[in-house]
Amino acid sequence: QALRAFYEKVEFKSFIKKLGDIEEEPNVIKEAKVELEYHFNEVNELISELKTCDVCYLDAEVAKENYHKEPLLGISVVVNNKGYFIERSLLNNNQLIEVLSSKNIYTVDVKKVFVSLKRIGITLSNFGFDLGLAAYIVNPSYASIDVKSIYAHFIETNIPYLEEVYGKNAKHEVPSIDVYGKYSIDKIGYLSEVKKEIDSLLTIEQKKLLYDVEIPLAVVLGKMELNGFRVSKNRLNEIGDFVLNEINRLEKEIYELCGFEFNIASPKQLGEVLFEKLAIAKGKKNKTGYVTNAET
Length: 296
Fold this sequence. Notes:
By secondary structure, the protein is of the alpha/beta class. Helices cover 48% and strands 13% of the residues. The protein has 13 helices and ten strands. The strands form three sheets. The chain has a six-stranded mixed β-sheet, sandwiched between helices. It has a two-stranded parallel ribbon with strand order 1-8. A two-stranded antiparallel ribbon has the order 9-10.
């Protein structure tokens, strides 16, 4: 369990998978079964289904974790136990955009969906649930870019990790639409079940934080990511010059006080100077030398 916790913290997803024989905590993980019909690029059928409901589950599919650098492949939508994947080239449909804009959208990552669609001229802002934000409020250690890692804290799923779908580094490639489209649909197919589980864990105050603050704020942050903000290049250069001059001045003062020069950035050398050569105090040691943090 300790090893799994460490792998989850540093997001060693492949190693977590190899620990499948380690028993999970029974009071946390629940089995969830999702049965969906899969449909690809059936825009008119999706529009018809959306007209029958107020809530839909939606995700924007990109092939890597950084949605700012990766092109949008398409969107997945789950409604009435039917999963639809629509490629990017088919999203420029006014009727589809209009009906999606009227729905309360539950998703994995509000900011990713908002930014990815806004970049191709589609604005969705009526979001009702964000899995990543909700999991973080339950426990900050649950935060992860990979949706499977988040789900694993609440329910059992059979969805793969992102790198298992698209590969990693030199082996990265976009598979066929039936592979990544199904993966995208499956990611949001579990949202209904996990939302119930998370809502049961959140306090009243935590729910207010999630639904009244964090989710609306995610849209604002998405706009900031797209628009950026104005800065003065000259002023930034002035600040940089000031900081550099201050560093040089303080380094010179330190060398004068010590009577010799050394690598101030080296904790080992700094510890030896402070606690051995200058003997200003009795230093504390760890395996790598003296401790030179702010507390000491």
